[in-house]
Structures are given as structure tokens and as C-alpha cells.
Amino acid sequence: xxxxxxxxxxxxxxxxSGTLVATILAGKGLYTIILDSGISRSDGPGRHLSRDxxxxxxxxxxxxxxxxxxxxxxxxxxxxxxGQIRVGLTRGGASVLWTGILHHLDTPTxxxxxxxxxxxxxWYDQAGVLLRAGGGGxxxxxxxxxxxxxxxxxxxxxxxxVTDPLSxxxxxxxxxxxxxxxxxxxxxRCRSSxxxxxxxxxxxxxxxxxLSAEHVILANDPLRGxxxxxxxxxxxxxxxxxxxxxxxxxLAIARVAVQTDRARELHAALWRPGxxxxxxxxxxxxxxxHALALVPPGPAEAPTLHLYWYLxxxxxxxxxxxxxxxxxxxxxxxxxxxxxxxxxxxATAEEALLAHLxxxxxxxxxPLPGWRPRLYPLGxxxxxxxxxxxxxxxxxxxxxxxxxxxxxxxxxxxxxxFPGPNAANPMFAVASAALGSATALADxxxxxxxxxxxxxxxxx
Length: 460
Ligand SMILES: Cc1cc2nc3c(=O)[nH]c(=O)nc-3n(C[C@H](O)[C@H](O)[C@H](O)COP(=O)(O)OP(=O)(O)OC[C@H]3O[C@@H](n4cnc5c(N)ncnc54)[C@H](O)[C@@H]3O)c2cc1C
Prior knowledge:
This protein is α+β, with helices and mostly antiparallel strands. 20% of the residues lie in helices and 23% in strands. The protein has helices at residues 16-27, 53-56, 110-120, 124-130, 165-172, 224-231, 261-270, 347-364, 427-442, and strands at residues 6-12, 32-36, 39-40, 47-48, 59-61, 64-66, 85-87, 144-146, 156-157, 160-161, 177-181, 183-191, 194-202, 208-218, 251-257, 278-282, 289-295, 304-311, 319-322, 337-340, 374-376, 410-412.
């Protein structure tokens, strides 16, 4: 099939999920189109087209739009609260911002463990190969265990350069992949149990484009994925919890100047001049807390440690994203409503998270000015999940491999599929789930390339 508007596989979203699945499908001979509304490759690694923070990250907290560094947040009380948050639907994706921490998804319930066993674990090692994982597995320093990392294109990691979604595509350089950057998918065209194609708008010209495909793969994140399905008439009334179970994990952050012996030791173990950030996990953190220290690249004379404490967030059915009928501009479903009716974690657990971070900072400290331990608002952790969850028909939207129930050619990738509570950095699980879906779609009888345990690094 060579018609530029008719694909064997049409992938909506060119982040990590979308580029991985496209790479694999094209490698198996399928002509694959990727649509992405918000990234550009014109000046090196992927970047957002827009400098408008509403379009770049789309989290509004206390009346301000918050970017990746969270620095726009006001200097407020320890607990910034959850009441004033609005999560817009961004045009750019999370993958251009990743730090590269490769960590298994945490799986505290039987449902989540079952998902991990079927959809993630068989693929972790192969994902590590593709992401050129490095580091990790070294000695613990002050209770912090170094983690395996991937990272941004062009940066160096022990043993070679690391990768990102767009360099994955250029590495493979397949003539079977066609990329439509700056195109936003606005609706799926369906007939009974099949998706026939996708309506899109070319944001650079305003022209409408109609594409057809044998398979359509949603790789466009837990907010815009369900929004696109709802806008296409595939919603809760069809018997799926599309857009329900939205969760993110509460996050507490502190940054410390490296002045104490313990901080110096940890920094020295992780810092590599001119290299990507490196991270370590506090191995004896209390249950439910995923505690990370990150060493950013920076001047040797002012070294810092960044501390990110994530608390397990629970996906409740009545926390939702709802986009039905809310796309007045026709450009990317920006005005979907997010309703968080239930807290994703108990207030007491959030207090315990903050108290534990404060204790840690006391042993590492002092905190940098403006960066004392604080709990950040929901939405800023940037790891939303759950809205197109894997599960049995009725309680789930997809099967374990990502195929939407009731459809034979519609697939979902990314954190939207995670069905259980989560506190871990999700990117490694995202990559693994994409590999499983690609294999199920193209070649159901094949197995992962590497046997579990034989990957290039050890992953916690
Ligand atoms: C600041 C930040 C730091 C992070 N750090 C880490 C980390 O250290 N470790 C870790 O494991 N994870 C981290 N994450 C999370 C990780 O980046 C994501 O889980 C992962 O990249 C998700 O990949 P994805 O391909 O599923 O989605 P995305 O990367 O979000 O890609 C979705 C793509 O879909 C496109 N899109 C959306 N809607 C449409 C539409 N209608 N039409 C066309 N295109 C559309 C978007 O433009 C986007 O490019 C971080 C996230 C953020 C925001």
C-alpha cells in the first residue's frame, strides 16, 4: 500500500509510544503513517511547536500555567492543595520532556500485577535495548540505589549515546513510515466494529485531511486519547469506561545544595560531567512512596540534588476527562473538562509523604532558596493514567494487548491503559506496552527478542 493517505497502520501521536510502535510495524512491512499535532523536528530533538504554556504542558495551578520545571508555581504553603487545578489538553507530548528513568511500573493490586505480567514484563528487556539503557545496578549510596537511564538524543550515557522518540524514527529510517507533523486528529470514522480512518487538520494550512487505515492506534496520551474517542461517538454510552479512572500521583519536591557529606557522596556517585541527568531511588522508602534523587547536569561549583517523592495515586471511576462536544476551535480537543471528584490519595498519606521528604532533606540539606519540601498540586506530576484502562469488557476499555473491546482494528498505547494504582515513572512501562501491542498487531505468534533478565542493565 503506497497511497500517502491510506496506511496499513495509522498512529495518532508521535511520542515514545507512537514512534516505537511505528518503527516496529514498518519493520514488519506495514506502511505506517504517524500524525502528531505538536512536535517538530526542524531543529534537532523534538520540540513543541508552541511557546504558549497552555499548549505546551496544559496544567493550570493557582491561576498559573505550569511548565516542566514547575518554577512558575507561587511560593506558597507546604501543601499547595488540589482544589484549583485545571488540566488542559496540550498539543505537545510528554515524551519530549522525559528525564529517562527506567523503572518497572509499581503494581500494588492484583489487577495491576496481572496487567504487568501480561502486558509489560515480557517486553521490559527489549524496551531497554531499544532505549539504549545504561547505568543502574551500582552500589547503594546512603540508601539510594542508582537507576538505569535512557535520555535525550545527542546526550551521552555510559556506553554510547541515548535515544528519544524522534531519533528512534531516524535510526530506523524506514521508507515505510510517513510522518505528518503538525496534523491534529479530530475524529475517527467508524462503521460498526471497524475504524475506517481518521479526520485530521493540518495546523500549518488549516486544511482538512481524510486518512484511511487498516489499523488505527491511539498513542496520544490519557487526556486526549479518550477525548478523541468521545468526539468520535465512542464513549461511556457504548459500554466502555472511556475517560473514567483518571489519576495522577501526588508529588512532593525539594532541591538541595550539595554541602553535607551525605549529599556530596550521593552527588559524586551520580554526577558525570556533560552527561544526562542521573537518578537513584531510596530503597527503604515507606510503602507507597517512590522516592527519587536526580542529579541534573550543572556547574561543578554549584552542585544540586533534586528530590522527587511520588505517592501512589489511585484511579477512581468517577474521576474523569470528558470532551464530548467541547472542541469549539476544532483544533485538538483543548477544552475537555477534567473532573476529579475523589482524591487519588488520602490526606494523611500526603502528609506522611511530605514529612518523609522533610526528614530526608534534613539529612541532605540545606534546601535551595525557594525549593524547600512542598507538596505539588495534582496534575503537575505529569504522569496521568487510567482513562482507557485495560480490563475485562465492561470494566475495561482494552484487552491486555491494547485492542479496544468490540473493535478489531482500534488500539490504545501509553499510560491511559494502566489499570491499577501507580507511583512509578511510567516511561519504561509505556515503551514495553507499545512493544507488546505492536507484536500483537503485526505478528501475534512472535516472542520478545531477549529473554527476561538478559537486558543491558538491571531495572528495579
Ligand atoms: C516534565 C515531564 C518529565 C517526565 N519525566 C519522566 C521520567 O523521568 N521518567 C519517566 O519514566 N517518565 C517521565 N515522564 C513521563 C513520560 O514522558 C511519559 O509517560 C511518556 O513520554 C508518554 O509517552 P507517550 O508516547 O505515551 O505520550 P506523549 O509523549 O504525551 O505523546 C503523545 C503525542 O500525541 C500527540 N497528540 C495528542 N493528541 C493528538 C491528536 N488529536 N492528533 C495528533 N497528535 C496528537 C501529542 O502532540 C504528543 O506528541 C515525564 C513527563 C513529563 C511531562
